[in-house]
Design a protein that fits this description.
Blueprint: E1 2-6, H1 18-32, E2 36-42, H2 47-51, E3 54-64, E4 67-76, E5 84-89, H3 112-128, E6 136-140, H4 147-153, E7 165-169, E8 198-199, E9 202-203, H5 205-212, E10 215-218, H6 221-227, H7 235-240, E11 245-247, H8 273-287, E12 296-300, H9 312-321, E13 327-331, H10 336-348, E14 353-356, H11 361-370, E15 373-376, H12 386-392, E16 396-400, H13 403-408, E17 420-422, H14 427-442, H15 444-455, H16 461-478
Helix pairs in contact: 1-16, 4-5, 8-11, 9-14
C-alpha cells in the first residue's frame, strides 16, 4: 500500500505548530509498520529546505484565472527522515521565508487562497503521472481540503476519483474560506456540485474536505467531541458526518524527543532524573535572567489567543504581586502586541521573568529538559504535543481542561495523576495553577515521584499509527 500525505508543514523542513510535527513523524511510523508512506509539501525558503540537496522529478503547469503557473516537484536526497519527502516549488507563491505569515511584518499573506489552490492542483498533476497511482491520499487541514473535491468533481483530475481520501482536522478554527467572487481561481468543476464547496455563503475548504473525504479524523477523541459544539460554524456539518469520523490521539517521535540521546540538550538523561533536571536548569540560567532557586514555569509556543497567551502577562503579574514564588520563561513568536507585552515584563519583573521572542527548536528542547513546569492555558487545543514532550523530559504540565489536554493529562488530585489541570479559561484559574505548582515544588518527594511517573508514559506514534493503518485498510478494501 502507498499513502501520500499532503500537508502545508512537515518537520524538520517547515514547522509552525503541531501539524508540522505530525506530518514529520506519523509517516515514519507508518513506514515502520509496513505501509509505504511519503509526504508532499510546498517548498518554502526555510533554512532546512535551502540547505538540503534535492533532485528534480517532475515539472508542470497549473491554470489559474487564465494564467499558466509553473511548478516543479523535487525529492529530498539529503537527510534520511524515515520517509520520502517531496516538495512543490512554485516560484512567486511559496519561495518565502514565512510559512503562513510574512517573517518581517508578522501578518498573513494576502494571496493565501491562490497559493494553496495552485499547490493542491500541482500535487494532483504529479500523482496523475506516476506509473502507479497512490492507494490513499491523506490530506491535512484546510490547505488541502479541496483535494477530496477536485478528484471527484473536476474533469481534469477525475481519473483519480477512485483513490480514497482521508482528511484530518488539526485545527477546526481555521477554514481557509474565501468569497465566491474568487471562484474563477478554481479549476473547472461540475457546476451542479458547487454546494460541496459552500458553507456560510463562502467557498470553505475545510467544510469541503469534511464533506468530500472518504474518512474524517481529528487529532484526539476529545477534540472530535468538542467540534460538535464549537467548530467556528461547522458544528452541524461535523455532526452530520460523524458516521465516517474518528478521533485519534497524536503521538510523538520518540527518536527526536529522547532525553537519553537528544543532541539539542546540554545534559542527557542517565539513571538520576533529578540530576538531569538540575543540570539542564543550570544551563538555562546562563541564558535567562531568572531565579534558579524557584520553580521554573515555562511557556513554549505561538503567542496567540488560541494558545491562551493573552492570559499569561496578567496572570504572572497577579501571582508575583500576591507574593507568589516562581520564575517564568516564555519562548515563542506571534501577535505583535503580545510580543511587546512580554518584552516589557522583562524590565518589570527582573529575575522573575524573561523571554526569547523567536522560534527556536533547539532552545525549546533545552527548556523541556530544564524547566520544572510547562504551562498550556489554551482556549482551544485539538491535541497538543507540548504536554507530551514535557512528559518525556520530566517536566510537569499545567494545562486547561480542553481537547487533547483533557485526554492526556490527569490531575494529580486523582490517584493516577500526571499533571495539574484547571477548568475555567480565566486569569484566576491560571494563577491557581501557578500556586499549585509552587506548592508541589516544595514537596520534593512528591515532585520527584511525579517526574519518575511521567517520564515512563508511552505516547509514541506506534499505537496511533496502527489506528491510521486500520483506516487505510478499511477504505482500500471498500474501493
Amino acid at each position: 500500500m502507498k499513502v501520500l500525505h499532503v500537508s502545508a508543514e512537515c518537520y524538520p523542513a517547515a514547522k509552525a505548530g503541531g501539524l508540522g510535527d505530525v506530518a514529520g513523524a506519523l509517516p515514519k511510523y507508518l513506514n515502520q509498520a509496513g505501509i509505504d508512506t511519503a509526504v508532499i509539501m510546498p517548498k518554502y525558503r526555510q533554512k532546512w529546505i535551502v540547505q538540503q540537496p534535492w533532485e528534480h522529478v517532475y515539472s508542470g503547469m497549473v491554470r489559474m484565472a487564465g494564467v499558466q503557473v509553473p511548478f516543479y516537484i523535487h525529492r529530498n536526497i539529503g537527510e534520511d527522515l524515515g520517509f520520502e519527502l517531496l516538495s512543490v516549488d512554485i516560484p512567486g507563491l511559496f519561495d518565502r521565508e514565512g510559512i503562513y505569515v510574512d517573517a518581517q511584518t508578522s501578518y498573513g499573506y494576502s494571496d493565501e487562497k491562490e497559493r494553496y489552490i495552485v499547490f493542491q492542483q500541482a500535487v494532483l498533476q504529479f500523482v496523475q503521472q506516476l506509473p502507479r497511482f497512490v492507494d490513499v491520499l491523506h490530506c491535512h487541514d484546510h490547505h488541502t481540503g479541496l483535494i477530496p473535491f477536485m478528484v471527484k468533481h473536476c474533469p481534469e483530475y477525475r481519473n483519480l476519483a477512485h483513490i480514497p481520501t482521508v482528511f484530518t482536522i488539526h485545527n477546526g478554527m481555521y477554514h481557509g474560506a474565501f468569497s465566491w467572487s474568487k471562484a474563477y481561481l478554481l479549476p473547472w468543476y461540475d457546476a451542479s456540485t458547487s454546494g460541496l464547496l459552500e458553507w456560510g455563503n463562502t467557498i470553505n475548504p475545510l467544510a469541503c474536505g469534511i464533506k468530500c473525504c472518504w474518512q474524517l479524523t481529528t487529532v484526539s477523541p476529545g477534540y472530535l467531541m468538542e467540534l460538535l459544539q464549537s467548530a467556528n460554524g461547522l458544528e452541524w456539518l461535523i455532526r452530520n458526518e460523524m458516521g465516517k469520523a474518528s478521533g485519534i490521539i497524536n503521538g510523538i517521535d520518540t527518536d527526536v524527543w529522547n532525553p537519553e540521546s537528544d543532541p539539542l540538550i546540554s545534559f542527557r538523561m542517565n539513571e538520576d532524573i533529578n540530576e538531569f533536571k538540575r543540570e539542564n536548569k543550570n544551563v538555562l540560567m546562563q541564558r535567562f535572567n531568572v531565579r534558579q532557586d524557584l520553580p521554573l514555569i515555562t511557556f513554549i509556543g505561538r503567542l496567540v489567543n488560541e494558545k491562551g497567551a493573552d492570559l499569561i502577562p496578567d496572570a504572572i503579574a497577579k501571582f508575583l504581586y500576591d507574593g507568589g514564588r516562581a520564575s517564568f520563561v516564555v519562548l515563542g513568536t506571534g501577535d505583535p502586541a503580545l510580543k511587546n507585552a512580554f518584552l516589557k515584563m522583562k524590565d518589570q519583573f527582573v529575575s522573575f521573568f524573561d523571554t526569547s521572542i523567536e522560534y527556536n527548536e533547539a532552545l525549546s528542547h533545552q527548556l523541556y529538559a530544564g524547566s520544572d513546569f510547562l504551562m498550556m492555558p489554551s482556549r482551544v487545543e485539538p491535541c497538543g504535543l507540548n504536554q507530551l514532550y514535557a512528559f518525556r523530559y520530566g517536566t510537569i504540565p499545567i494545562v486547561r481542561t480542553t481537547g487533547g489536554l483533557a485526554d492526556t493529562v490527569i490531575d494529580i488530585s486523582s490517584g493516577n495523576g500526571t499533571g495539574l489541570r484547571f477548568d475555567d479559561f480565566s486569569m484566576d484559574a491560571l494563577v491557581g495553577g501557578f500556586k499549585r505548582a509552587a506548592l508541589l515544588y516544595e514537596r520534593k518527594e512528591l515532585l520527584w515521584e511525579l517526574r519518575e511517573k511521567i517520564i515512563d508514559l508511552d505516547y509514541s506514534w506506534a499505537k496511533s499509527a496502527q489506528k491510521y493503518a486500520d483506516i487505510y485498510n478499511k477504505i482500500t478494501l471498500k474501493n
